């Protein structure tokens, strides 16, 4: 049985199932291991970890500790409680209308960040005038439709991770600050800080920065220096503001004082520094790395919510969840009716009732004509509470169940041929995107919205499933 315990209850002989912290913040080479001695417990405590999950089938038990199911149920209740608020995501135009512009803005920002970071590696100064127009265009896009650019930010190529992560943190900071009703100048400066927050990584040896595996304790200590380096670089950048410097200098500080480099606590960390910490962890958790599989956005949000007891400002975490949605665009969900669909848009009034494009019935195990279901429309909250309206039963674990959504779509035989263009056309139809199937970025975006992606266009999944057949074990749990 998996149980959640406080680290003060840890004893040698217990089996760690999950360290319950973001994997970039701890120095352990293994995620699951048997505690052999007190020194290991001390190392866990020193890493700022407060609660861990233990496997009582593989080690000692703590009788009074809650099970993982109990913890999840409690978290879900709390999330549902505050999720019945208005979405803070802007939607002045439809996502489909904004995607083309957002794609260009994202590409441009990527090139600019790459150029600036490579300049820094060569010892040159940051030219702020190159970053500012890019942040301004990102802000304009987010103010037209927040979902479009943020969906594109989920595309990550492993080789370009540092640059793309910087773009994502910039965009997420702009969106988050806007949701917090901050003024235009603060939003702009926070966006710049987000884009440049990891600039100090260019001073970290490549062998550590791009190591294709978990870092050793020594390498981890070297990696941590990137925050101090970021602050140093930005402090001598002409035209930079204190807000942008704070975002970079404090993005690894934690609310309980367990962060670095200064171990600041609570209000000692600026509000934008606290926001940057949430955004940075969210983007890192949802990104694939060579030694780490990215989490689905909904799972990452729930983990951040769970950790907000200690590591983040809980009020800001709730505000962040409102700013991107409890079920972000591109999440695959199963409705309680058994229909499978993809979240295509947030609902203005209720974050747990987004618009979903359904395309498959798990009850009849067949595809159905794609249809947009607005989970709130025409039902009213009272009726929704009485379960008369369709609602999300759960998010479908397309990764952990070894079921890729694209494989699934293909196997479900939604009119998709072996030809990849046809396949992508169908994916767009299912997700509600209308751009040309031949557009490679849109293909990536559509893929990124569903998880296991890049493999999917190369591997249609016919080896795993027969046509018209779905592995029901993964859908009915
Ligand atoms: Fe960082």
Write the layout of secondary structure elements.
Blueprint: E1 2-6, E2 15-18, E3 33-34, H1 38-46, E4 51-55, H2 68-83, H3 95-121, H4 128-144, H5 146-152, H6 161-179, H7 184-196, H8 206-209, H9 217-224, H10 226-235, H11 242-250, H12 271-285, H13 297-307, H14 314-324, E5 332-335, E6 339-345, E7 355-361, E8 366-374, H15 380-385, E9 392-395, H16 405-411, H17 420-431, H18 440-448, H19 454-458, H20 472-476
Antiparallel strand pairs: 1-4, 2-3, 2-4, 5-6, 5-9, 6-7, 7-8
Helix pairs in contact: 3-4, 3-5, 3-6, 4-5, 4-6, 4-7, 6-7, 6-12, 7-11, 10-11, 11-12, 12-13
Structural class, from helix and strand content? Answer: alpha+beta
- Based on Cα principal axes, name the global outline: globular
Q: Secondary-structure element order, as H and E?
A: EEEHEHHHHHHHHHHHHHEEEEHEHHHHH
Helix content: 40-55%
Q: Biggest sheet, in brief?
A: 5 strands, antiparallel
Query: How far apart are the termini?
Result: 18 Å
CATH topology of the largest domain: Hypothetical protein af1432
Q: Name the CATH superfamily assignment of the largest domain.
A: Hypothetical protein af1432
State the CATH class of the largest domain. Answer: Mainly Alpha
Number of helices: 20
Describe this structure in words.
There is one protein chain. The protein is of the alpha+beta class and 477 residues long. Helix content is 46%, strand content 10%. The chain folds into three domains: 2-66; 95-324, Hypothetical protein af1432; 332-476, no CATH class. Strand 5 (332-335) and strand 6 form a beta hairpin. Helix 12 packs across helix 13. Fe (ii) ion is lined by residues 198, 226, 251-252, 280.
């Amino acid at each position: 049985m998996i149980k959640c315990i406080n680290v003060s209850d840890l004893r040698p002989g217990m089996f760690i199932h999950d360290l319950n912290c973001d994997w970039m913040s701890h120095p352990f080479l293994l995620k699951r291991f048997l505690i052999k001695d007190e020194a290991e417990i001390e190392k866990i405590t020193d890493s700022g970890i407060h609660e861990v999950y233990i496997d009582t089938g593989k080690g000692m038990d703590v009788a009074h500790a809650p099970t993982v199911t109990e913890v999840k149920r409690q978290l879900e209740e709390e999330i549902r409680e505050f999720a019945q608020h208005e979405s803070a995501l802007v939607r002045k135009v439809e996502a489909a209308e904004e995607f083309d512009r957002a794609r260009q803005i994202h590409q441009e920002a990527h090139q600019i960040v790459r150029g600036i970071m490579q300049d820094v590696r060569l010892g040159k100064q940051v030219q702020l005038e190159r970053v500012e127009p890019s942040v301004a265009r990102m802000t304009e896009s987010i103010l037209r439709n927040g979902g479009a650019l943020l969906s594109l930010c989920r595309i990550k190529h492993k080789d370009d991770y540092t640059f793309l992560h910087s773009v994502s943190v910039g965009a997420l900071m702009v969106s988050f600050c806007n949701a917090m009703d901050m003024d235009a100048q603060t939003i702009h400066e926070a966006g710049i800080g987000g884009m440049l927050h990891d600039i100090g990584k260019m001073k970290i040896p490549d062998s550590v920065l791009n190591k294709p595996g978990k870092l050793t304790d020594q390498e981890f200590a070297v990696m941590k220096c990137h925050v101090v380096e970021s602050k140093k670089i930005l402090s001598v950048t002409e035209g930079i503001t204190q807000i942008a410097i704070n975002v970079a200098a404090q993005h690894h500080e934690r609310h309980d004082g367990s962060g670095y480099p200064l171990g600041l606590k609570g209000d000692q960390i600026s509000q934008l520094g606290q926001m940057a910490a949430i955004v940075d962890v969210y983007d890192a958790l949802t990104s694939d790395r060579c030694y780490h599989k990215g989490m689905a956005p909904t799972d990452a949000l729930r983990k951040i919510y769970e950790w907000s007891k200690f590591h983040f400002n809980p009020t800001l975490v709730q505000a962040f969840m409102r700013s991107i949605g409890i079920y972000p665009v591109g999440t695959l969900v199963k409705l309680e009716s058994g229909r499978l669909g993809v979240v295509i848009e947030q609902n203005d009034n209720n974050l747990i009732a987004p618009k979903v494009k359904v395309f498959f019935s798990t009850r009849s195990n067949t595809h159905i004509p794609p249809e947009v279901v607005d989970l709130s429309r025409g039902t009213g909250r009272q009726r929704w509470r009485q379960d008369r309206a369709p609602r999300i039963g759960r998010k479908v674990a397309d990764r952990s169940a070894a079921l890729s959504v694209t494989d699934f779509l293909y196997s479900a035989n939604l009119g998709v041929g072996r030809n990849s263009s046809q396949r992508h056309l169908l994916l767009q139809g299912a997700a509600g995107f209308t751009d040309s199937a031949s557009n490679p970025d849109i293909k990536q975006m559509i893929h990124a919205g569903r998880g296991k992606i890049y493999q999917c266009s190369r591997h249609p999944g016919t080896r795993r499933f027969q046509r018209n057949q779905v592995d029901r074990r993964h859908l009915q749990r």
